[in-house]
Design brief:
The complex is a heterodimer of chains A (269) and B (404).
Chain A (H helix, E strand, L loop, with lengths): L1 E11 L5 H8 L20 H6 L2 H17 L7 E5 L5 H11 L8 H6 L4 H9 L6 E5 L4 H16 L3 E8 L14 E9 L8 E8 L13 H13 L6 H9 L3 E6 L4 E8 L1
Chain B lengths: L7 E10 L2 E2 H11 L5 E2 L9 E3 L19 H10 L4 H12 L4 E6 L5 H9 L20 H11 L5 E4 L5 H14 L5 E8 L3 H9 L20 E2 L1 E8 L11 E2 L2 E10 L12 H14 L8 E3 L6 H15 L4 E3 L2 H4 L6 H15 L1 E2 L15 E2 L4 E2 L5 E7 L3 E8 L3
Parallel strand pairs in B: 1-10, 4-8, 5-6, 5-7, 12-13, 12-17, 13-15
Antiparallel strand pairs in B: 1-2, 1-9, 1-11, 3-4, 7-9, 11-18, 14-16, 17-18
The chains are: A alpha+beta (269), B alpha/beta (404).
Amino acid sequence: MRVWIPGLAVLADGMAGWEPARAILRGEDTWQPTPCALPPPATLAPNERRRTSPIVRLAMAVAAEACAAAGCDPATVHNVFGSSNGDGRVVNAILQALADPAAGISPTQFHNCVHNAAAGYWTIGSQSHQPVACLGGYDWSWGFSLLQAAAEAVVEGKTVLLCVYDMAMPMPLGQKRATRGTFGVGLVLSPHPVPHALAMLDVDYGAEDAADTVLTLPDAQATTALRALCHDNPAARCLPLLAAIARGGTHEIRVAGDVGHVALRVTPC
Amino acid sequence: MSATMTALRMTAGTGISAIGRGVGQTLAALRNRRTGLEPCDFAGITHGYAGPVAGVQAHAVPPALAAYDCRNNRLIDMALRTDGVAEAIMAARAHYGAGRIGVVMGTSTSGVLASEDAFCAMDAQGRLPANFDYEHTQDLFSLARYVRAALELGGPALCVSMACASSSRAFMDAAYLIRAGICDAVVVGGADSLCRMTLRGFAALELVSARRCRPCDALRDGISIGEAAGIVLLERPDGRAISGPSAGFRATLLGYGASSDGHHMSTPHPQGAGAALAMQRALDSARLPVDAIDYINLHGTGTRANDAMEDRAVSTRFGTHVPCSSTKGWTGHTLGACGVLEAMICALAIEHGFMPGCLGVDEVDPTFRANVLTTNMARPVRHVMSNAFGFGGANCSLIFGKAA
């Protein structure tokens, strides 16, 4: 499957956007684990804005920035949202309330605990009537969500916004599902060549098991730190692809699945 | 991609719910108009009615997959062992190869009951029990990994989770994998099982009826929650010759359409604009005019808002003649599993030429304009639309036809 990337966005600890991320991945800047600011989504009405949790803000921010970078109207793109844990904060809070037979369940928390909450708020904010898919694939959410987004783009012949995000899992659920840091990535995928695309991407699935392409950056310290982030946050597994786009040139990248792998070939435009 | 690839074959399929295990029991319950809803008695929750699946509590998963043991995976394992679908998938695997068959499952809450039990068993220091395995139970991917492991498949796997539209949307994502050439066949389906989260969550939203749910009734006042699992083998149209008796049901997936309301997280668009758009996109995808649809299996949850919105959307798109009904009076609202469960009901309607009228309706809402059936009707059925709408404004419509 061949798609073009007219725009992308990153929001993560120490990476407050694609430009700073690009500089780090090219070895032009150092990476610091500065917690990233999550802006309240300006597109939502005040009462809805108040209800958005940090992870909804993360997803909406990268979705909006990716569309802006690609120069496309958020109301026109198909949407594929991928996340391992979804809103772990809300799920954890509901599980705590459910363990207490006397405690009430917050209706707002209940409808915010669905895995498609971030995508729901995104379509409300962008007044979109376009399709949404919301996927979960544990540690392999990034690769399988990218595969699915590329498939939708080429089959439907439509531009697809892929948004993949995960955040730290709070306690006590974090005892059993350790996830650290904040990482969100947004990628606009076009099934047709577009002017000023960042890269052309060939995406395929391979049934044989393969390890992730190891992230290697010019700066050794950044390499070590960001490899740890790839390990700790499923969305950060996009970093080898982002590093390839940042550096330019042609690259073959493998994204491991629990079974099989997703094979990527990046070609500069 | 060529136009002829839109239609994909459903070469085997089954479902289990409160009205029975597999096509035989489901068909009998539909024909006899026998509901599976009973007074709710689950984890100390006794409000309203629920639709539990008989035998799920005692069902054992194979020892090799013991890490995955939870109510939701027991439910999907029961489905795999119903109507011979696992054997039919094995035959497809022998033909295409394990790596060419993907798995796309829909679920809203996966095995969350296991986490609920673990939180209830937390010790004084706030530690969750040592034997609680989040990755293989509550995690969304658990369901798809379970199915892939049980069937020893090697294609891509994913869980689709978008509330009550989950397993309907799973059909679309499965179709994309086939039409893009990544897979020759995909095991598509889903499961959602009874848990405190949904029983108490919907009660907190005051959406659970104290009675059995009565979709489309003038006095309907909410849902009854059920549990269900379903499995369908979806294949490319030119894949292989199939002979012999069918494993469960067969049908053709003729089209699909999805949309977003972009309106509100838990309240549908009052005019059903998003729902009508999903239905239109499904018709466009199937290249069928509105008058080609013989029956619409409604989402029809039994809430005031959903059923009124859906009536507007259906009557706007189809006029007032197409027979339509909800089958949730039989099974309850099986949430993320309703898409695949109702795919089975649609296939049975096509194969046996009948339409199940809504159960438990005293009087159809007099403001409704659509042709709501309240008794079963025998009539040839060629094309059926199935609707599913979820929190977050996620809408999905599927169109099924006769098996090729």
